[in-house]
Specification:
The complex is a heterodimer of chains A (269) and B (266). Helices cover 78% and strands 2% of the residues of chain A. The two termini of chain A are 41 Å apart. Chain A has a single domain, classed as MetI-like fold (Orthogonal Bundle). Chain A has 269 residues and is mostly helical. The relative contact order of chain A is 0.14. Chain A is globular, with a radius of gyration of 22 Å. With 266 residues, chain B is mostly helical. The longest helix of chain B has 34 residues. Chain B is globular. Classes of the chains: A mainly alpha (269), B mainly alpha (266).
């Protein structure tokens, strides 16, 4: 099958080579093939690597929580309150930005959020601000939300729209309060879909360099920015590869655990 | 019931807010692209098209635009071909290692682009094809094929599996069946997949930036202009980019949904 060859050549090949590269040596600014743990030892002994690692995990977690919480009321409304037609149109319009130049959208936020930008101008008319939002975590989070929110709303909406309505009505008829319906019926039933949404959100935030770089000011570099710096300035590709491998290991562990949890809960309930 | 009404209004308002948040950057980028002031603020300056004139005069940007078009068009064809073959083999055959086989195709989008970018860069310079437009196309074909595969696979799901056997029984060869039965059936999905993969490829910046070398595409040019300063040219370029990718994504959806509607109504 030529497809397998193609994928091996341009997907597996690069990834494996990158893993191998993390063991290469850099001598006189040139990469030489070898099998040494020098890069790993170097990176792991660096304080900035670990602080950046935890910072990235932390901010991606916050981003995931924000996206999940911000998306929920909207997805809830679209899934249960809106007509089928409205829902279809809403998803239609949510898919558009997801596939539309994230880079330009981020730059646009840069302009909107700046000290003399639109948001501060509007706040100014009611006598607030100006606030500094760029180069702070707020900036980074706005960027992450730009990236992840459409996807999370879509996934949550689709998940909840697929819940069997009779179960909700049954709970209602049995005297369950609306909030309890959400907590005890809707959320457990949509667990798998929600976990997948959260995992995607985490992966996207974890691996994005644009938002923390342009909106967050990168004073605390995240791992993707670290990769960028290490690769673009000088020939330290092997070290960048170490960071990349660590990132992939983190994401795979997370994804597998999450999926395991998602499906275990489903089978017992 | 009255309480429910209020709740509905609040929820509806919230949905509108979420959509405003999501579409604000697109909207303002277009607005500011026609703004005469160098630094985009409110109140707006005068209406002007100077940024458009500027980018249309810039040979670098025009060249990048051409590169982008070539890359996304080639990627669309390659990725859709890959996606179609995988979707069809998944639909039609059962074999050992099908799981790993599908994973091989579907995994790339779950790996952060920056990692793929680094991996591709290292690999391509190792095997000696880095720094060319084709290297971007190869990389993008792997990254976007899963989207094509998903769309075409969904379409194949709607096909009656007996249709194929019927064609064979009536004496159609495998090729003829493919050409006259399966391909026409999947056509809307194939067009939709091409539009979508073209849109993704057109907007992708991380891999393009790492791999492209001197052959920059539009997102790479934007990335370089944006570094450090505010330049309203980006809004003008962005407006074009939005226009193209939104058109592609809308087309993709229209082809896909449109056909489904016809089917359910007939």
């Amino acid at each position: 099958m030529p497809i397998i060859v193609w994928q091996l050549a341009f997907f597996v090949g690069p990834v494996l080579f990158m893993v191998a590269m993390s063991f290469f040596l850099v001598k006189n600014y040139r990469m030489t093939e070898a099998f040494e743990f020098v890069n790993w030892a170097k990176m792991f002994s660096k304080g900035y690597f670990w602080s950046s690692y935890w910072h990235t995990v932390w901010i991606a977690t916050i981003s995931t929580l924000c996206a999940m919480c911000l998306a929920f009321p909207a997805a809830f409304a679209l899934a249960f309150k809106a007509s089928e037609n409205t829902r279809r149109w809403a998803i239609f319009f949510l898919i558009i930005p997801f596939f539309t130049s994230y880079l330009v959208r981020t730059f646009s936020w840069f302009v909107i959020l700046s000290e003399s930008g639109v948001v501060n101008a509007i706040l100014g008319t009611v006598g607030l601000g100006p606030y500094t939002m760029l180069n702070t975590h707020i900036g980074t989070l706005v960027g992450y939300m730009t990236l992840t929110l459409p996807l999370v709303v879509i996934l949550q909406t689709v998940t909840m729209a697929n819940i069997d309505r009779t179960l909700i009505e049954a709970a209602r008829n049995l005297g369950c309060k609306p909030l309890a319906v959400i907590w005890r019926v809707i959320l457990p039933l949509s667990k798998a879909g929600f976990i997948i949404a959260a995992v995607f959100c985490f992966i996207l935030s974890f691996g994005d360099f644009v938002a923390p770089f342009y909106l967050g000011g990168s004073q605390e570099p995240t791992l993707p920015i670290l990769i960028l710096d290490t690769t673009k300035s000088g020939q330290q590709w092997p070290r960048a590869a170490v960071i990349a491998v660590v990132m992939m290991a983190t994401l795979f562990t997370l994804a597998f655990t999450a999926i395991a949890i998602a499906y275990r809960k489903r089978s017992t309930s | 019931m009255k309480k429910d009404g209020l709740l509905n209004v609040v929820l509806g308002g919230y949905v509108v807010l979420v959509f405003l948040f999501i579409f604000a950057p697109i909207f303002f980028s277009i607005v500011f692209s026609f703004n005469s002031q160098r630094f985009p603020t409110i109140p707006l300056g005068e209406f002007s098209t100077e940024w458009y004139v500027k980018i249309l005069d810039d040979p670098d940007i025009l060249e990048a635009a051409l590169n982008s078009l070539i890359v996304s068009f080639s990627t669309a064809i390659l990725a859709t071909l890959l996606g179609f073959c995988t979707a069809y083999s998944d639909f039609r055959y059962n074999f050992r290692f099908k799981g790993p086989y599908l994973a091989l195709i579907l995994l790339p989008p779950t790996i952060p682009l920056i990692i793929m970018a680094l991996a591709m860069l290292a690999w391509f310079s190792k095997i000696g094809i880095s720094g060319q437009l084709w290297s971007i196309v190869f990389a993008h074909s792997v990254l976007t094929a899963p989207f094509a595969m998903a769309i075409i696979r969904l379409r194949l799901n709607q096909m009656d599996p007996d249709l194929e056997s019927a064609a064979w029984n009536l004496g159609g060869t495998e090729w003829a069946t493919m050409r006259h039965v399966i391909f026409p059936f999947c056509k809307p999905a194939i067009i939709s997949a091409m539009c979508l993969t073209a849109a993704v490829s057109f907007d992708e910046f991380a891999v393009s930036w790492f791999v492209s070398g001197l052959n920059k595409t539009i997102p790479v040019v934007i990335l370089e202009i944006v570094q450090g300063n505010i330049d309203p040219q980006v809004n003008a370029i962005g407006t074009f980019v939005f226009l193209i990718s939104i058109t592609l994504v809308v087309l993709a959806q229209v082809f896909f949904i449109g056909r489904q509607h016809k089917k359910s109504s007939s």
